[in-house]
Design a protein that fits this description.
Elements (H helix, E strand, L loop, with lengths): L4 E5 L5 E2 L15 E5 L6 H5 L25 E2 L4 H6 L4 E2 L3 E6 L5 H11 L4 E5 L4 H11 L6 E4 L4 H11 L3 E5 L16 H18 L3 E6 L9 H5 L4 E6 L6 E9 L7 E7 L2 E4 L3 H5 L10 E8 L2 E13 L7 E4 L3 H15 L6 E7 L11 H13 L7 E3 L2 E2 L5 E2 L4 H10 L4 E5 L14 E5 L2 H9 L1
Parallel strand pairs: 6-10, 6-11, 7-8, 7-9, 9-10, 15-19, 17-18, 19-22, 22-23
Antiparallel strand pairs: 1-2, 1-3, 4-5, 11-12, 12-13, 13-14, 15-16, 16-18, 20-21
Helix pairs in contact: 3-4, 9-10, 10-12
The structure holds thymidine-5'-diphosphate and magnesium ion (MG).
Length: about 450
């Protein structure tokens, strides 16, 4: 018999009968790989494989007759996770937790299993029972109803789940799963797609929520979660720099809530700790009065986050001056330097410039521009900026300071953390509430104003 095979795009999962160089669906180059497909059974038999007694097939129903989804959500006993899920775990939902290896996905979900006081099935194809036990001991919480199962066969896993009837199922990870009905290796596109589909059908039929861990590489690589995003209900991404303790859990997709929420954790000796007041930890005390540091009042997701931006500007001794940025877009840094050169006559051209956002947090909010600019000038001129001052503003190409979203929330957070002054844009300031948050609000329209106000 001829072996049946097909080609799949490893980025988006599009199928093609022959190899092609450029994916017509996502536009990526050289992503097509051959995979062997051999279906021994029909789709119908397959989706029933985990079930011993066959259930009647359901017929089309009137929308009116469909029982409305019980809005009750399961409390995960984890404030940050509840927040990103939109207020708790929805019954029968399937949640993909993505992230780079070693970021803490297994820890997060094992911790969830142990904090719960109901029956949990934790399936691991990556670690042995003993390894999981060791991790559980570090985390410290105890749940007598937490079951560990190490298998990779999806049909077998679902059979066990059916016997056990757990309240939550956790799968670590989707790349290790394999369906006996498909011939390609675990982690390949067709396996990942098939297994996730199987889990999704199971979740929908039994109403048991399923968490699925998925690895991504630096390039977004293997069996890209892009392909899974369509199948699952919620996509959470766990990010952060491995060398720092802070981890951010971001919602990329949520069928039951907003995607603006983020959860913040710190990894320590005893697993992941929830951080409900991140700003307090991200700002260092103002003891040494050093130059080159400014506090930005930024907003990540819906949460105000006060961050310290640090700059080091020093004369370049060897050849071409260097520019380097951690946690901030390098092109944006070059743009801000050009604006400072052109509009304020500050010469950075012969200097090395290093920029760092404290805590290893990657910021996408453009409102931290103003703090970055302040830190750069502070380092160049070696003038210390009082740590009771913070900044929120986007800097435009002509040196104008543009207004930012959620200004009120930023001012409020600055007041709550005991700041004296916050600098914001003059534009649209009439929209701001006249409320007093215990912090003085100063308005700037151009970078020249900043120079005059702070560095005069
Ligand atoms: P892990 O959950 O295994 O990551 P992933 O499943 O995403 O690959 O966790 C990885 C790191 O977390 C590991 O390098 C060790 C660290 N860690 C701690 O620092 N403290 C702890 O209590 C635990 C359990 C892990
Ligand atoms: Mg893991």
């Amino acid at each position: 018999m001829k072996v049946k095979s097909s080609f799949f795009c490893s980025n988006c999962g599009t199928e093609s009968p022959k190899w092609i160089g450029k994916c017509p669906s996502c536009g990526e180059w050289n992503t097509y790989h051959e995979e062997i497909l051999e279906k021994k059974t029909t789709q119908e038999e397959k989706s029933d494989a985990w079930r011993s007694s066959k259930k009647e097939k359901s017929a089309p129903k009137k929308l009116e007759d469909v029982s409305s989804l019980t809005a009750s959500r399961i409390d995960t006993h984890d404030g940050e996770l509840n927040r990103v899920l939109g207020g708790g775990l929805v019954m029968g939902s399937i949640i993909l937790v993505g992230g780079q290896p070693g970021i803490g996905k297994s820890t997060l979900l094992l911790q969830l299993a142990l904090k719960q006081q109901s029956k949990i099935l934790y399936v691991s194809g990556e670690e042995s029972e003993e390894q999981i036990k060791m991790r559980a001991n570090r985390i410290g919480h105890k749940n007598p109803e937490c079951y560990i199962y190490t298998d990779v066969n999806v049909t077998q896993i679902l059979k066990e789940a059916n016997k056990l009837q757990p309240d939550i199922i956790i799968i670590d990870s989707v790349q290790t799963l394999m369906s006996p009905f498909i011939d390609s290796t675990p982690g390949s596109i067709s396996q990942v797609r098939e297994c996730t589909g199987e889990l999704q059908r199971y979740a929908k039929e039994t109403n048991i929520p399923v968490f699925v861990i998925g690895h991504i590489t630096k390039e977004g690589g293997i069996a890209g979660p892009k392909l899974l995003e369509h199948i699952v209900d919620v996509v959470l991404q766990f990010e952060g720099d491995q060398h720092y303790a802070y981890r951010i859990l971001r919602t990329l997709k949520n069928r039951f809530g907003s995607t603006d929420e983020i959860g913040i954790y710190a990894m320590d000796m005893f697993g992941l700790r929830e951080i409900s007041n991140p700003s307090e930890l991200l700002i260092s005390p103002d003891d040494d009065k050093l130059s080159g540091s400014a506090v930005a009042a930024s907003v990540e997701g819906l949460r105000p986050l006060l961050l310290e931006t640090q700059a080091l500007v020093s004369p370049a001794i060897y050849g071409t001056p260097q520019r380097s940025a951690t946690g901030f877009d390098l092109r944006r840094l070059s743009m801000l330097l050009a604006v400072l050169e052109k509009r304020c006559g500050l010469a950075f051209g012969q200097n090395d410039v290093f920029l760092n956002i404290a805590g290893g947090i990657k910021v996408t909010d453009p409102s931290i521009d103003l703090a970055v600019v302040a830190a750069l000038i502070s380092s160049l001129q070696d003038i210390h900026i009082n740590k009771k001052i913070c900044f929120a503003g986007e800097v435009g190409l002509s040196g104008e300071i543009r207004p930012v979203s959620r200004a009120e929330q930023r001012i409020q957070e600055a007041g709550r953390l005991g700041f004296d002054t916050i600098y914001i844009s003059k534009y649209k300031s009439e929209l701001l509430p006249k409320k007093n948050f215990g912090v003085e609000v100063k308005m700037l329209s151009r970078i020249d104003d900043l120079l005059r106000e702070i560095f005069a």
